[in-house]
């Protein structure tokens, strides 16, 4: 068997209204279309990717994401060009995201270029570009 990517990622957030406002701008910018926009759930799909946010239960609404605790560390969206990474960084800055790092070269694969920022709940989001097949060129997936 070989999977065909990740169908969707759903994150639970405590600051739902702020996060929905953030993702209503970010996700369509990334090419994802809104499928559900409800009181406690927001979901978009596009580029063979589904991404959604759900409102945290009342007793957890004082908490936020912390990359040092068990659970989600970050989500990375793959861009088709370096310029796309730059454009997302500009939008994230405009949205008031905490910028962890502006677009820069990384060591993860040849030509790795990315930006990293946080949504209003502290969930880290990365957008990267890797030319060609990146690490898959040597077929490390098998």
Tally of DSSP helical segments:
2
Sum up the overall morphology in one term.
globular
Output the helix-strand order.
EHEEEEHEEE
- Please give the share of residues in helix: 10-25%
Strand content: 25-35%
| Total individual domains | 1
User: Could you describe the largest sheet, including whether it forms a barrel?
Assistant: 4 strands, mixed
The CATH class label is Alpha Beta
Structural class of the secondary structure composition?
alpha/beta
The separation of the N and C termini measures 11 Å
| Average of pLDDT | 91
CATH architecture: Roll
- For this structure, what is the CATH homologous superfamily? 2,3-Dihydroxybiphenyl 1,2-Dioxygenase, domain 1
Count every beta strand, where a strand is a DSSP E run of 2 or more residues.
Answer: 8
Model regions low in confidence, pLDDT < 50 over at least 5 residues: none
Based on CA atoms alone, the radius of gyration comes out at 16 Å
Question: In CATH terms, what is the fold-level topology?
Answer: 2,3-Dihydroxybiphenyl 1,2-Dioxygenase, domain 1
- In spatial order, strands of the major sheet run 1-4-3-2
In words, what does this structure look like?
The protein has 142 residues and is α/β, with parallel strands linked by helices. The chain has a single domain, classed as 2,3-Dihydroxybiphenyl 1,2-Dioxygenase, domain 1 (Roll). It has two helices and eight strands. It has a four-stranded mixed beta sheet with strand order 1-4-3-2, covered by helices on one side. The longest helix has 14 residues, at 16-29. It is globular.
């Amino acid at each position: 068997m070989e999977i065909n990517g990740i169908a969707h990622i759903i994150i639970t957030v405590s600051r739902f209204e702020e996060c929905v406002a953030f993702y209503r701008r970010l996700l369509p910018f990334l090419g994802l279309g809104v499928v559900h926009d409800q009181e406690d759930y927001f979901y978009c799909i596009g580029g063979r990717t589904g991404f959604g946010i759900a409102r945290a239960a009342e007793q957890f609404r004082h908490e936020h994401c912390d990359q040092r605790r068990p659970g989600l560390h970050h989500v990375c969206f793959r861009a088709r060009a370096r310029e796309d990474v730059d454009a997302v960084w500009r939008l994230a800055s405009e949205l008031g995201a905490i910028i962890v790092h502006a677009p820069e070269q990384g060591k993860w694969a040849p030509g790795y270029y990315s930006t990293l920022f946080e949504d209003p709940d502290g969930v880290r989001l990365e957008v990267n570009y890797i030319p060609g097949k990146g690490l898959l060129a040597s077929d490390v997936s098998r």
